[in-house]
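Possible race condition, two jobs.
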Amino acid sequence: MMELFILVSGTVSIVAVVPLGYLALRSVLEARELRRIQHELATLMHDSRAVAQDVHRLQHELRSEQDAAKLRIDETKRTVDHVTAIVEETAERLTEAVTDAASGTAGSPPRIQLADAMLHRFGAAAAAHGARARRPESSE
């Protein structure tokens, strides 16, 4: 009877060890897979940090370029406003000089010289504006 008890208990022990061995083997395989996934995750985190730094650098460059473009636009607007004021002033004085000359009331040489001086000033202002407008293009 004792022999039967030893035989049954040995058989039960062997049968109980097989699932434990399977679970141990499976745990080892899953631990390897987990280490591989952790390594991939660490690589992805490192790559995402590098991408974030690149994005930050690009945003800074864009912001700098936008600021420079805004300054150029403001300068162009000031130049256009300045030229517009000169043109309006010259047009008024020229119209006045032409009106005076046509009516014959003030056809004196100083008035004509004033009209010539205004045309010269308008031409000089337009030339200066053209030189300023071309300068940024040549630097690019």
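Job #2 (started ~2 s after job #1):
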Amino acid sequence: MLRPRRVSQWLRLSWWVPLTCLGAIWAAWFLLAPPTKHRLVIGAGQASGDSYRFCVALREVMREHDSSVDLDVLETAGSEQNVVWLEQRKIDLATVQADVAMTTTATWVATLFDDVYLLFARHGSGIASVADLRGRRIVVPPIGSGQHTSFEFLLRHYGVALDDLETLAMTDHEAIDAADAGLIDGIFHVRALNNPDVMKLAAEAPLDLVPIEQAAALHLRSPALEPAAIPRGALVGHPPEPGTDLPTVLVQRLLLAQEDLDPVAVQEVSRFLFEYRREILLRSQIAGTLTGDQAAVTAHDLPIHAGTRRYLERERPPFIIEQADFIALMMSFIVLAGSGAVSLKQQIDARQKNLADEFTHRIIRLFRDGKTAETRTDVRHVQAAMMETLTEAIAHLDEDRITVEGYSFFSMTWQAVDAALRDLKRELPEERTQDENGGA
């Protein structure tokens, strides 16, 4: 039978058993539980476009490497719809041409690749520039895409209205057949140069690239556009297409995110974009210009998403380490200045203490003189000297030439000596006058 004391001890100890079990369970869950899985929807444009192909490659690479983010690639009409849907929160991420109007809530994640303006003209059509498109039948990207917006912008610059020509919507395969049959005069695209559909178009259709000139002027109207050149033979090697270096304009394809999208998820996406770029390149063939250059963000007046910033600055040392030399120099100056201040303060304190000690010693010397006094008059002379010393000490205290502590010690000494002299004066006789001395 357990004694009451042992029962009480056992009951107190038994509380630790469930607490220990709960702690072990929590630790196991924290260490062994799988990371939170994030599901993000990305608006990727048309399924035949570069952006869609790129996003699919990114999704495959992330899944193969067990990423904590699962990408859902959504086909959309293009950049303009992506921007609207990003604002409406129908999607989390969006691929967008840099020359499309952005919303205030869009944030930059990455610059994916470079697109170029491509204008193809059918052999013998007589189209040598954008100004020659009046009255022609041109295959253009669908309305709602960034490419269509770029085409309208290009026409306006050359003084051509959209109603001045007939625009058609076709797939690249349909466009090749239509060009062979002479049913169209040209095709406009905004795509990467190494896009396989563009290369197939240049190789199989009776089409030639048309130069897009005045790139510097186009840049003035739309800063997202940059002068560029299509190298000779970039699309077809033999016979080379184009036959010579052709001027055109370049626009970057951006990856944007909602401003308040989970930074952890965006950081994971950024990590795969830059650490697995080679694998994405091999799958999509268009990721060669993938960049995390923050200068590109400044050009588009876009804020950097917090998750992307966290990734880009992951290897940046803390401020105190980054500025270690400057901080050490400042600390040296502070130590030297502090040491000088302390030394100066010590000198001032020593000077003040010496002055207070001098007043104290003067009082002690006066006390010695008082002890040798033979009459009360002699004592009064000593007391008068003490009052002069006290007055002088008070003046020095007001001028901060002696410390309060030094004056307090002096004051205590002065009061003690003054009390001793008063007692001594009572014991001494008054000084005799001259008449009294003569009568005696």
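Strands lie at 38-43, 69-74, 93-97, 106-122, 137-139, 166-168, 186-191, 207-209, 226-230, 246-258.
Logs attached separately.
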